[in-house]
Amino acid sequence: MPEKNSPLTGILLSLAAFALFSTHDIAVKMLGGGYAVFQIVFFSVLLTFPFVVMMLLRDQQQATLIPVHPWWTALRTVSAVITGFGAFYAFSVLPLAEVYAIIFASPLLITVLAIPVLGERVGWHRGGAVIVGLLGVLIVLRPNDLDLGLGHMAALGASFFGALAAVIMRKIGRDERTAVMMLYPMMANFIVMGLLLPFVYRPMPLFDLGLWVMMAVLAFGASIALIHAYRRADAVVVAPMQYSQILWAALYGWWFFDESIDPVTGVGAGVIIASGLYIVLREGNGRSVNSPVLRTRSRAETGTAPRIAPMLSKLDRTVPQDDGR
Predict the structure, then answer these.
(1) Other CB atoms closer than 10 Å to residue 147's CB: what's the count?
(2) How far is Cα of residue 110 from the mean position of the Cα atoms in its chain?
(3) Is the CA virtual torsion 185, 85, 48, 169 positive or negative?
(4) What is the pTM for the complete model shown?
(5) Does any domain span residue 170?
(6) Cα–Cα dist 48/220, whole Å
(7) Most CB contacts within 10 A, which of 19, 54, 194, 308?
(8) What residues make up the domain containing 62?
């Protein structure tokens, strides 16, 4: 495994990874105009599964697929299914920048959920950052001026349950096999969406099928790029690169969907990003026992794409105790 001595390479790889993820989301939005979310998720899992199998072939651990922590694994699996459905639906009906701004609240929620799940202590620095960040979410939502719909609720649900899945990953990830952590959410999505598929199925022309294939390839490529980014640079350098997606949202939204980032959404997104960056820097300075945000390492768990955190479990380090500040 390469040593973490190439921060510039890590930054470039992570920027490339999140550019690929953003392009993946464009395909989701395009398909969302003509297909039910159940169908989009089902075929996303089906076409991504061969890539996940390729990644898991490197897992030499001799064990079964029975989880060590069945209840936590079940809760994480359900959370991933809800996250995938919520995120895909939100991308289908909301402007890209708005969805990203809401989902960017996930690190704030991870910080909060780490208190009961991981026993993390959050001092007033990070606690204040969470409050400010959640105010940023309210700015984006504009509850007094905007008719909040199912898309906003779906994005909020994706942010919350994505955070919950990430925190549970931190709790049980060292005990569970990589195969368990990666396959259970995908199999749950395959079964649940497959049962609902007959009620919403629409025939897929070749172009649309190509979008699904493109999604699978992009998700796999982004995951590989992110794995190599974390192997070459510290998490405190790589993690903030996820916020580059707001730039891709602006570009792709304007290019493909005639969308623009209104000033209110821009201000709210800026507040959320600043709060998330502050939390990342606090964890990077050793202020957190478990560093749940830094150790998340990828986008929210959706059960439709390879999850890189299990593949990087050997990179976990022991960090100093939180001084509560």
Answers:
(1) 7
(2) 12
(3) negative
(4) 0.87
(5) yes
(6) 8
(7) 308
(8) 7-311
